[in-house]
Design a protein that fits this description.
The structure holds 2 protein chains of 2 kinds. Chain A is mainly α. Chain B has one domain: Na+/H+ antiporter like fold (Up-down Bundle), CATH 1.20.1530. In chain B, helix 6 crosses helix 8. Classes of the chains: A mainly alpha, B mainly alpha. At the A-B interface, helix 1, helix 2, helix 12 and helix 14 of A face helix 5, helix 10, helix 11 and helix 13 of B.
Chain lengths: 446, 386
C-alpha cells in the first residue's frame, strides 16, 4: 500500500511539475495528461472504496470530485470537458456489455413479471412525485408563478425527468462487482425497460408542454416519426451491427479489442449523424451477438476485459469532475428533499409492482436499492428541456443536476449493498461461462 | 547470413514482422486479397500502405468520414500512440547484446547523421530555390523532413551471423531520431529547447518511476492494464504538455524500466503488444486522413523519396564499414521507411499548429512511395539472404 501511495504521489508530482513549469497548452494538448492521471489515481481510489465495501465506481467518482474544478482543480473545468469525449464510447461499450448480459432464453419465463414490475413502479413513482410537485410547486425554485395548465405541463415534464433511472450506472455496478444472479438481472431489465418507456413518455409530455407553454404543436406527427426512428431505428441499426460483428467473430475473429472499440465508435458516430440513440443501438447489438449468433466467448471476454475497465474508470472520473457542486450548494436542500421522496416512491412502486407480479421473494425485495442511481439519461432529458424552455427549463436543469450529484453518489452504494445482501457479488467468478466479466478477472487468492 | 522477416501467424511485435512480412511483389499480390490482410489485420508486405491509404480514403478530401474536426480531436490519442511508439523504441534500444555494442552505436549515429544531413541539406537548397510557401521556416521544415526520412522500419533478426548486428543497428538508430524529433517539435512550438527537454526528461522519469512501482504490484491483469494505459497516457501528456515529443518521454521511461531491477520492461512490452496494432493503425490512418492534396505536396514528396534513397544508400556504405556488416544487407534493411518517420511528421505538424499540412502530407506520401519502391528494389536480396 505504501509503495502504491508513493507511485500515486509521483503521478501527482508529474502533473504538478508540468502545470508549474510548462506553458499553458490549452485543454486538448493537456487531455492525455488528464487521462493518464485519472486512470491511475481514480483506479487507486476505486480500490480504496472497495476496501471500504463501497463500489469501485464510487472511488472513481470521488476522485473526480476531489481533483475536479470545484476542489483541488488538478483537473480543470476544460480538462474535465475534454475527458468527456470518452462518454460516447463509454456509453456504447456499457450498453453493449448490458446487451451481452441479457439472454432472452433465460429471461423468457420472467419477462411478464419484469414488465409488470417496471410498469407499476414507474406508474407509482409518476403518481407520487407528480402529486408532490403539484403541491409544493410554489416553493420549488423553478417557476412558482406558473399556474393552471402551464403548471401541470411543467410538473409533468419535471416528473418524467426525475423518475428516470441510470442504465449506465446500473450496468457499471454489476460489472465491477462481477455480480450474477436474479437481482442483477431483474434490476438491469427493469431499468432498461423503464427508461425505454420513460423516453417515450417524456416525448409525449414535452409535446404537451410545447402546446400549452411554448411553440404550440409545432412538430405534431413529425415528433412521433422522429421518436419512432430514434427508438426502432436505433434497435434495428444496433441489431444489424451486432449481426455483422457476430459474422466478424466467426470468420475473422482477430484483433477483437480494436473491432470492439470500432463497433462502439460506429454506434456513437452514427448516433450523432443519424439521430439514433447510441445506448439503444449498442444494447441491441449486444443482444444480437448474445442471442442470435454463437460467440467465441473466451476471445470476446478477453477483448471486453481489455477495453472496458479503463473506459469505465475514465468515464466515472470525468463524471465526478463534472458534478456541479455549485448547483448542489445553491439548491441542495430542495434536491435532497425531492431525492428523498423519489427513493420513497421507488420503494413503494417496487413493493406494489412485485406484489402485482407475484414475485415478492427476499431477493426481489431488494430491487428498489438498484433503482436509485441517476446519470446520463436524466441529464440528457434535462438539457433538452433547458434548450427548449430557457427560463424555467434552466431552473429544472439546475435542480436535476443537483439531484444527479446526490443520486450518482448514493445510488451505486445502495445497489452494491443490495447485491451483497443478495449474495450475488462475485457471482461471475464462480461461473466462467459466456457471461462477460466486464473488465475484472477473478481475484487471485491473496 | 539471414535477416528473416516474419510472415502472418508470427507473434506480433513492433517492427517488420507485423508491419513488413516478405516483400516479394508476387507474395504481396497473393496475400493482399486474403481476409485479414486486406483489412489490415493480418501481416502484409507493407501494411503502412494499407492504413495510410485507408486514411486518405476516409479523410476530409475524399469520403470525409474522418473530418478535420475529428482529426483535431484525435490529438490526445495521437500523443498517447506516440508515447507507446517511444516505449517500443526505448525497449528496442535497451535490449542489445554486448558484442560490439559501442561500434554499432557509432555506426548507427553515423548512419542517422549522414542520411538526415543529406536529406535535410539538399531539401533545404531545393526549398529555398523553389520558394514553395511553407508552414515553417525552410531550415526547420528541411530538418523535420530529414529527421522523418532518417527512420527505417525495425527488423527482427532470426538466425545468426550478420543479421543480429544489422537488426541491432536499426534499433539503435531510432534514438538520435527521437531526440532530433523532440528538438524539432520544441522549435516548431517556439519553446526554449533546453528547458523543454529538461522538463520532458524530469516529468518522464517521474512517470516512469511511478510505472515501475505499479506494474509489478497490480492485483489483477485488468488493473495492470489500467496502470499501463495510465502511464502511457501520462507519458503522452508529458511530451505534449512540455512542448517536446511524446516519443522522447516514452523512450526515456522505457530505458528506465529496462535498466531498473524488476520486470517492468517485459510487463510493459507484453501489455503494449496488445495495443500496438490499434495504435499504429490509428497513427497511420490519422496521417493518411491529414494528407492535403495539392501540387506542393508532390514537390516535397518526390525529392524526399529520391533524397532518402540516396541518403540511406550513402549512409549504408559508411555505416557498414564501421559496423563491419555487409553493405548490401544493411542497405536493404534500412530502405523501408516504417512508421516512425510518419509519426515524427505527425508530431511536428501538431506542434506547428497550422492548417497547412504540407510537412505531414509530403512525408506521408513519400513514405508510401518509399514503401512501394522498397518492395520492388530489394526482393531478390531478401530471398538470397533468408
Amino acid at each position: 500500500m505504501i509503495v502504491r501511495t508513493g507511485a500515486l504521489l509521483l503521478v501527482i508530482a508529474t502533473v504538478v511539475l508540468l502545470r508549474e513549469f510548462a506553458a499553458d497548452e490549452g485543454p486538448r494538448r493537456t487531455m492525455a495528461l488528464a487521462l493518464g492521471f485519472s486512470l491511475i489515481a481514480a483506479s487507486m481510489l476505486g480500490e480504496v472504496a472497495e476496501r471500504l465495501r463501497l463500489p469501485r465506481l464510487t472511488g472513481y467518482l470521488a476522485f473526480g470530485l476531489l481533483c475536479g474544478p470545484y476542489m483541488l482543480n488538478l483537473i480543470t473545468a476544460d480538462m474535465a470537458r475534454e475527458l468527456q469525449i470518452v462518454n460516447g464510447l463509454a456509453i456504447a461499450l456499457i450498453a453493449l456489455i448490458a446487451g451481452l448480459e441479457i439472454n432472452l432464453e433465460r429471461l423468457r419465463a420472467r419477462l411478464r413479471a419484469i414488465a409488470a414490475v417496471g410498469v407499476v413502479t414507474v406508474g407509482v413513482m409518476y403518481l407520487i412525485l407528480g402529486t408532490l410537485f403539484l403541491i409544493v410547486w410554489p416553493w420549488l425554485p423553478i417557476a412558482p408563478e406558473a399556474s393552471g395548465v402551464e403548471r401541470l405541463a411543467m410538473v409533468l415534464v419535471l416528473t418524467a425527468i426525475v423518475v428516470s433511472f441510470s442504465p449506465t450506472v446500473t450496468i457499471a455496478v454489476i460489472a465491477e462487482s462481477r455480480a450474477r444472479g436474479p437481482l442483477s438481472e431483474l434490476v438491469l431489465a427493469v431499468v432498461v425497460l423503464a427508461d425505454l418507456f420513460l423516453i417515450l413518455g417524456f416525448t409525449l409530455v414535452m409535446q404537451f408542454a410545447r402546446a400549452t407553454i411554448g411553440d404550440a404543436g409545432s412538430e405534431g406527427a413529425g415528433l412521433m416519426v422522429r421518436l419512432s426512428w430514434e427508438i426502432f431505428g436505433s434497435l434495428a441499426f444496433g441489431a444489424l451491427l451486432g449481426a455483422l460483428f457476430a459474422i466478424y467473430l466467426r470468420t475473422i475473429g482477430r484483433e477483437l479489442t480494436i473491432a470492439l472499440l470500432a463497433l462502439c465508435v460506429i454506434v456513437t458516430v452514427a448516433g450523432q449523424a443519424w439521430h439514433l440513440e447510441p445506448l439503444l443501438a449498442a444494447l441491441a447489438a449486444g443482444l444480437a451477438i448474445e442471442n442470435i449468433a454463437p460467440v467465441r466467448a473466451d476471445a470476446l471476454r478477453d477483448a471486453v476485459e481489455r477495453s472496458a475497465l479503463p473506459v469505465l474508470v475514465v468515464f466515472f472520473a470525468a463524471a465526478g469532475a463534472s458534478l456541479h457542486l455549485d448547483a448542489l450548494a445553491t439548491i441542495g436542500v430542495a434536491a435532497a428533499i425531492v431525492g428523498g421522496v423519489r427513493v420513497f416512491a421507488i420503494r413503494a412502486g417496487t413493493h406494489l409492482g412485485l406484489r402485482v407480479a407475484g414475485a415478492g421473494d427476499r431477493v426481489s425485495r431488494l430491487l428498489w436499492m438498484g433503482l436509485v442511481s441517476q446519470a446520463g439519461v436524466t441529464l440528457g432529458l434535462a438539457i433538452l428541456v433547458a434548450a427548449e424552455f430557457s427560463d424555467w427549463g434552466s431552473a429544472v436543469q439546475t435542480l436535476v443536476v443537483a439531484m444527479i450529484a446526490l443520486h450518482e453518489l448514493v445510488g451505486p452504494i445502495l445497489f452494491k449493498a443490495a447485491l451483497e445482501r443478495a449474495g450475488e457479488v462475485g457471482g461471475l467468478d464462480h461461473e466462467p461461462t459466456l457471461a462477460l466479466a466486464q473488465g475484472l478477472e477473478p481475484r487471485r487468492p491473496s | 547470413m539471414a535477416v528473416a522477416v516474419a510472415g502472418a501467424g508470427d507473434t506480433p511485435e513492433v517492427g517488420r514482422d507485423v508491419l513488413d512480412p516478405p516483400r516479394q511483389p508476387s507474395v504481396w499480390a497473393r496475400l493482399f486479397p486474403a481476409r485479414g490482410v486486406a483489412l489490415g489485420l493480418g501481416a502484409s508486405p507493407a501494411p503502412s500502405l494499407t492504413f495510410i491509404l485507408t486514411g486518405m480514403l476516409l479523410g476530409p478530401q475524399v469520403l470525409a468520414v474522418v473530418t478535420t474536426d475529428v482529426i483535431v480531436r484525435m490529438d490526445p490519442v495521437v500523443s498517447i500512440a506516440l508515447a507507446a511508439l517511444g516505449v517500443f523504441v526505448g525497449l528496442g534500444l535497451a535490449g542489445g547484446s554486448s558484442r560490439g555494442e559501442g561500434r554499432l552505436l557509432a555506426a548507427a549515429l553515423l548512419e542517422v547523421a549522414l542520411s538526415v544531413a543529406v536529406v535535410a541539406g539538399l531539401l533545404y537548397v531545393l526549398l529555398v530555390r523553389w520558394a514553395i510557401p511553407l508552414p515553417a521556416s525552410p531550415w526547420l521544415f528541411a530538418l523535420a523532413a530529414g529527421t522523418c526520412a532518417g527512420a527505417s522500419a525495425a527488423v527482427r533478426a532470426r538466425g545468426s551471423g550478420d543479421a543480429a548486428p544489422v537488426a541491432r543497428l536499426v534499433d539503435l538508430d531510432d534514438a538520435p531520431l527521437v531526440v532530433l524529433a523532440a528538438m524539432a517539435v520544441a522549435i516548431a512550438g517556439a519553446r526554449p529547447v533546453g528547458h523543454a527537454l529538461v522538463l520532458t526528461a524530469g516529468a518522464a522519469l517521474c512517470a516512469g518511476v511511478a510505472g515501475w512501482l505499479l506494474f509489478e504490484r497490480a492485483r489483477s491483469e485488468a488493473e495492470r492494464g489500467v496502470f499501463v494505459a495510465g502511464i502511457i497516457a501520462l507519458l503522452g501528456g508529458v511530451g505534449a504538455h512540455a512542448g517536446t515529443s511524446p516519443l522522447l518521454s516514452g523512450t526515456l521511461a522505457a530505458l528506465l524500466w529496462a535498466w531498473s531491477p524488476g520486470r517492468a520492461d517485459p510487463i510493459i512490452a507484453a501489455d503494449l503488444r496488445k495495443l500496438q496494432h490499434p495504435l499504429v493503425a490509428l497513427l497511420l490512418i490519422v496521417a493518411g486522413a491529414s494528407v492535403q492534396w495539392h501540387a506542393a505536396v508532390l514537390w516535397i514528396a518526390a525529392p524526399l523519396v529520391m533524397l532518402r534513397l540516396i541518403g540511406k544508400l550513402l549512409a549504408s556504405v559508411v555505416a557498414a564499414r564501421v559496423a563491419v556488416v555487409p553493405t548490401g544487407l544493411l542497405a536493404t534493411v534500412l530502405l523501408p521507411p516504417g512508421v516512425l518517420g510518419v509519426a515524427i511528421a505527425l508530431n511536428v505538424q501538431q506542434a506547428l499548429g497550422t492548417r497547412d499540412m504540407l510537412l505531414l502530407s509530403g512525408v506521408t506520401v513519400a513514405a508510401v512511395a518509399s514503401e512501394l519502391l522498397t518492395v520492388f528494389l530489394r526482393t531478390e536480396e531478401i530471398e538470397e539472404t533468408s
